[in-house]
Write a structure and sequence with these properties.
The protein is an alpha/beta fold. The protein has helices at about 20-30, 45-50, 65-75, 90-95, 125-140, 160-165, 175-185, and strands at about 40, 50-55, 85-90, 100, 105, 115-120, 150. A seven-stranded mixed sheet has the order 1-7-3-6-2-4-5. Mean pLDDT is about 75; it is low at about 1-20 and about 30.
């Protein structure tokens, strides 16, 4: 069975749901649940709650070569293994950051449904890779891969600090690290 029948990841939030009064009440209760800092939430759950995603304008542009690498990683691991870091758009705006959606439209405090916009601080390449991969999997009638979002504890740091720390350069494993890993893992368990 499919994990999610959600439409496009970036579809705008609709108005009140249609259907029975009970369905409307259940949908309103679902939407009224606030995300708690420090939690990890499945992307399909957030989309079901009508959240949409944006980005900080100063963050790096999407690099198609990186997206291809992320697609390969998602396929190799059978899904996303590292959650996206997300912060509510209002917190970013309160930190004087300029925001936009993934179509390039500016997000301001006057943007409709601002409380349902989460800004990806770290993971925009994984997000794009997951979006492209799942679009293809839906066309092929295959189950979609799930993604996860982490709402970090940011009470004691600015969003800019979180952005800088989450995007600091790292060196991929290689050389002695990779050789040591291969020695610790039983033969035929690495692909």
């Amino acid at each position: 069975s499919k994990r999610s029948n959600c439409p496009c990841y970036l579809k705008q939030r609709k108005g009140k749901p249609e259907g029975s009064e009970q369905e409307t009440q259940e949908e309103n209760e679902k939407q009224s649940k606030k995300l708690e800092k420090g939690t990890i939430v499945a992307l399909s759950v957030l989309l079901g709650m009508k959240y949409v995603f944006g980005r900080i304008k100063i963050n790096r542009d999407i690099d198609s070569a990186q997206v291809r690498k992320k697609i390969d990683s998602i396929v190799a691991c059978g899904g996303i293994i590292s959650p996206f870091l997300v912060v509510p758009a209002l917190i970013c705006l309160d930190n004087n950051l300029e925001l936009e959606d993934f179509d390039g439209h500016t997000i301001t405090k006057d943007t409709p449904n601002l409380s349902f916009i989460l800004v990806i601080i770290d993971g925009q390449h994984r997000f794009e890779a997951l979006k492209q991969l799942n679009k293809k999997r839906v066309r092929e009638g295959k189950e979609q891969y799930e993604g996860y979002c982490h709402l970090p504890l940011i009470d004691n740091c600015a969003v800019t600090t979180l952005l800088r720390e989450a995007n600091s350069a790292t060196t991929p494993w290689g050389g002695r690290f990779l050789q040591s890993l291969k020695l610790m893992i039983p033969p035929n368990s690495l692909s």
